[in-house]
Specification:
209 residues; globular; alpha/beta; five-stranded parallel β-sheet; homodimer; four-stranded mixed β-sheet
């Protein structure tokens, strides 16, 4: 009898500048596909009242975080405004081994680190805003924002966007449903990638003997 | 103003042993997606009454075929039962340059030749039958087929199937609608692959300046 084809999970990375709609796309993807879960980061910053430990973040002490860094327990980590953030390896590798997929909402620096440690498992997607005007509109979040503040945000977005050539796929978010469909296609396709499949040899041997 | 993102077309190769349902999947894909066209092979064999020159095949003389081989005008070519078959380069490269995709129904040998000449444009999918019994059922096309004939067809299928590791994707055709959806996802995803996109740099430059 032929064996069953299984597969190793994949790490789907969505990156984009602020204002490209990534948070909405991540949420909708998670809602529509039970086979993929969000990666939960560890952080040293204090828990906010609306946050749940283990769901929004794993809240850890600076000492514990440093211990994990030394034990090479993170796929990637960074310091932002004196707080440390990192992606613990263990829950991700367990999910992948069980054939589940993990979603990452990280920037280009995190993506680079992830790629160094787990290139074969990473599928990276860069999401672009549809136009200059739309990006500016989304970055001008409050009516009283000065042109100077908006210009600063545009410059920051420009710096982030410059890393698009480091990604496997590029999706322009003109329409959220179309962009979501494209991300779902990428996930569906990458699940059928030969190098991720396990047991094809046995399955195939059983087909004709 | 930001430029427009265009893309280079891709060459989608579907291969499978007889009895895996490839012909049905190809037809349904072509019917459902106007952005992809079937590659039309050239052949030296005689036209059958129901065939249309330029649609089913380009019917050419042996001398013309040989001339095209010498001019390196084929992506791949082969001889089957003394007749020659080949994929002319020109219509394919024109379609790709215009952003259109081309579907190829070729075997592993053709796929290898295509890969040598146009690796970056090729996306290859190997379609597997769901089980030994189902494959045998499909290969036993007539009630009077002897077990010996069916065993011969199974052996031939086994030899073809052994080339699955040379493909980018593997799809098991358990259910034709699911297999079709998976092939459509592969096509949709590969259309968003960064390396196929043209003009992203200009588009991105226009986003933030």
């Amino acid at each position: 009898m032929s064996g069953e084809i299984k597969r190793r999970g994949l790490m789907l990375v969505l990156s984009s500048p602020s204002g490209a709609g990534k948070t909405t796309l991540s949420r909708k993807l998670l809602e529509s596909d039970p086979g993929i879960v969000m990666s939960v980061s560890a952080t040293t910053r204090a828990r906010r009242p609306n946050e749940v430990d283990g769901k929004d973040y794993h809240f850890v002490t600076p000492a514990k975080f440093e211990e994990m860094v030394k034990a090479d327990a993170f796929f990637e980590h960074a310091t932002v405004f004196e707080h440390r953030y990192g992606t613990p390896k263990k829950p991700v590798t367990q999910t992948l081994a069980a054939g589940g997929d993990v979603l990452f909402d990280i920037d280009w620096q995190g993506t680079q680190q992830l790629g160094e440690k787990a290139r074969d498992d990473v599928v990276s997607v860069f999401i672009l805003p549809p136009s200059h005007d739309e990006l500016e509109r989304r970055l001008r979040t409050r009516a009283q924002d000065t042109d100077e503040i908006v210009a600063k945000r545009m410059a920051k977005a420009g710096s982030e966007i410059s890393h698009w050539p480091e990604y496997d796929y590029v999706v322009v978010n003109r329409d959220v449903d179309r962009a979501l469909a494209q991300i779902k296609s990428i996930l569906d396709a990458e699940r059928a990638r030969r190098t991720r499949l396990i047991g094809v040899g046995d399955f195939v041997a059983g087909l004709t003997k």
